[in-house]
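Methods, example record. To illustrate the input and output format used throughout this study, we show the complete record for DUF2269 domain-containing protein. The sequence lines were provided to the predictor; the line carrying C-alpha cells was produced by it.
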Amino acid sequence: MEYSLLKFLHILGAVLIGAGLIGVWMADLRSRQLRDLAPFAEAVRNIAVFYDGVVVPGALLLLASGAWMIVSFYGGWSFLQLPWLAGMVGLFAFEFIEGNTVTRLYFMRLRRLTRAALAAGCVTPELRQARREILPTFTHFLDLPQLFLIIALGAMQPTTWTLFLVGLLVAVALATLLTVAIPRLYPWGADAK
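The corresponding predicted structure is encoded as:
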C-alpha cells in the first residue's frame, strides 16, 4: 500500500512538472512572437504562473515521494547501482538546481524588467538585452527533453547506461538546436514597442 501511494504521488508530480513545463514553453514561445509590450507582459506573467503554480509543486512532490521510495524500497544509497534510478536522480538533481538558479531566476528577472518597461511605456534596453540571453534560453529549451529522458528511464528501467548517455546527447543537441533556431524565427526586440 505504501509503495502504491508513493508511486501515485510520484506520477502526479511528474504530470504536474510536465504540464507546467509545457505551459512555460507555450507562454515563452508566445512571448517571442509578440511585439506589443502589454501582451508580452501577460505572456511573461503566464510563465511565472506556470513555474510557481505548477512546476514547483510538482518538483517538490517528486522530490519527497522519490526520496521516500529510494530510502524505503531501493536500499538508500544502493540506488547508485541501478543505472536507470541513478540517472533519474542525477537528472532530477541537475534540473532542480538549474531550474531554480538559472531558468526560474531569469524568468523572474524578465518579469521585473517587463514591469519596469510597462511603467516606462516602452521596451527598455535592459529588457531587450535580457530577452537575447543565451544561457537561460538553452536551459529553458533543455527542460522538456530532459524531463522526457527522466520519464523514459523510469518507464524502461535499463540496466546499462546506454539509454541515459544517448538520451542526454539527444536532449542537449535538441536544446542547442532550439536555442539557435527559435530566436532566429522570432527575433525579439528589434521592432518591439
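Annotations derived from this record:
Residues 2-185 form one domain.
Helices lie at 2-33, 37-73, 83-120, 125-131, 134-156, 162-185.
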